[in-house]
Specification:
alpha+beta; 221 residues; 15% strand; TcpA-like pilin; single chain; two-stranded antiparallel sheet
């Protein structure tokens, strides 16, 4: 009897160890915290991807700009060299824009930049500062995201003789006054960062709900 009782005593703790202990469920607070952490992580990932995509689009735009300049320069040298009447349709027909920038065909063809907005080309119809009529042209980049304004403008300024920013969304009807330009033809002074930021903010505030700006750059042939 004593032996059996002793064996029983020794078996009971083992049985308790083998058995399942009390189960604790996940509380609503813990669940909400877990979901919140996941949401914060996903938002961070999306913001990072958006920033990376914007940087890639800006880099692609700045790679294409010199190609357009070289193409128009070569076409001008092989033709009559007078681009006073140049417009977007003529530039597209001449093959000045890389193929991946063209959407549509024929009369509906349009040049677009990597951010998805249109590009307009316009020949210089009158002398402006040091630039001569028909020997320069403007490229207008419409619908540039406001948060990319400064980066795109600084990159394009390195390629052109003149640059300014506004909210027109299309090719300008006339050249602005030299005092309204961030870079003036014939002057090699670097762009004033304060003036650049001011024009970006002003153009974004006057633009559409998407806070887009328009950047114009003058290039000589």
């Amino acid at each position: 009897m004593n032996a059996n009782a002793s064996a029983s005593v020794h078996r009971r703790p083992r049985a308790r160890r083998i058995g399942l202990g009390p189960q604790r469920g996940v509380t609503l607070l813990e669940l909400l915290i877990g979901v919140g952490v996941i949401i914060v992580f996903m938002v961070g990932v999306l913001i990072g991807m958006r920033s990376l995509n914007a940087q890639m689009d800006r880099s692609a735009l700045l790679r294409q700009a010199p190609q357009i300049k070289v193409s128009l320069g070569g076409l001008g040298a092989s033709g009559d060299g007078d681009f006073a009447s140049l417009d977007t349709a003529t530039a597209i027909a001449m093959g000045a824009f890389p193929r991946e920038m063209i959407t549509g065909s024929g009369a509906n063809a349009q040049a677009t930049h990597p951010f998805g907005g249109p590009i307009f080309a316009k020949g210089l119809a009158d002398d402006f500062e040091t630039l001569k009529r028909g020997r320069a042209f403007s490229l207008t980049y419409a619908a540039i995201p406001a948060d990319q304004c400064a980066g795109v403008a600084r990159g394009l300024a390195m390629l052109g003789e003149g640059l300014w920013i506004d909210a027109t969304g299309a090719s300008p009807a006339a050249m602005p006054a030299a005092g309204d330009m961030l870079r003036v033809p014939g002057k090699d002074a670097p762009i004033d960062i304060g003036a650049l930021a001011e024009q970006c903010v002003k153009a974004a505030g006057a633009g559409d709900a998407g806070k887009a700006v328009t950047i114009h750059v003058l290039m000589a042939l």
